[in-house]
Design brief:
Layout lengths: L2 E6 L23 H20 L3 E6 L1 E3 L12 H11 L4 E3 L7 E5 H13 L9 E3 L3 E3 L1 H8 L8 E3 L3 H7 L8 H7 L7 H16 L14
Parallel strand pairs: 1-2, 2-6, 3-5, 4-8
Antiparallel strand pairs: 5-7
Helix pairs in contact: 2-4, 2-7
Length: about 220
């Protein structure tokens, strides 16, 4: 039975190549969060080689979902902006610089990647840990897409301690090995991501469905 380990871009550090970030490269994270991720990867590799445990690990980008209230993590601005745009008339305060590029993935793609990884025959896996990519964007790029729905949305940028963390992470994930080994492919690009997020968040908030260019922020 496969043993799944699912974690994040936090496994990489400032010395890692950022665009793109391959599966095999220097990692050296500088947070205990990231150190724990790398420790789990290496421990899984050890159990695979020493005891034959079918260890399988995925490194995920920032996961975007509208089902719950965002928690304030480094990539959560990409979820919070939808809640704010739909409920608040004041500018959305983003804690990252407008040009901070990070890899992201929509929750449906994320869950499908995990299931596919667990179901692929062991003989098809050439490694134990894979990068999984969806899309990569900046706060400024996401803002422009959100404005398709809420044209008068304003955003102010006030980087805080999360900026330093973001600067140490990959900008673009290279998931070529996952695509080659079991045919992984994401389905949600930026356009589809924004569309589905407005559908899900409006439903959670109990407000009327949105149409592109038809609403004002906080209404």
């Amino acid at each position: 039975m496969p043993f799944a380990h699912v974690h994040t871009i936090g496994a990489f550090g400032p010395e890692s190549p950022k665009n793109p970030t391959p599966d095999f490269t220097i990692q050296r994270p500088k947070t205990i969060y990231g150190v724990a991720k790398v420790h789990a990867e290496l421990l899984g590799e050890y159990y695979y080689h020493r005891f034959g445990v079918d260890f399988r690990s995925l490194r995920l980008p920032g996961v975007i979902s509208g089902d719950t209230v965002p928690g304030g993590g480094t990539t959560d601005y990409a979820c919070s902006i939808f809640d704010h745009a739909l409920t608040q008339p004041d500018p959305f305060q983003c804690y990252l610089r407008p040009d901070t590029r990070l890899p992201m993935i929509y929750i449906d793609d994320c869950l499908r990647a995990i299931v596919e990884m667990m179901e692929v025959p062991a003989a098809d896996l050439r490694m134990r840990t894979y990068n999984i990519a969806g899309l990569s964007f900046t706060p400024q790029e996401l803002t422009e897409e959100v404005k398709r729905y809420i044209p008068n949305l304003e955003v102010s940028y006030r980087p805080d301690g999360r900026q330093e963390i973001a600067d140490s992470w990959p900008q673009v994930f290279d998931d070529t090995n996952a695509r080659n080994d079991w045919g992984w492919a994401h389905r949600y690009d930026m356009d589809k991501l924004v569309d589905i997020m407005f559908q899900v968040v409006t439903q959670r908030l109990g407000i009327r469905p949105m149409h592109k260019g038809s609403a004002s922020a906080g209404r």
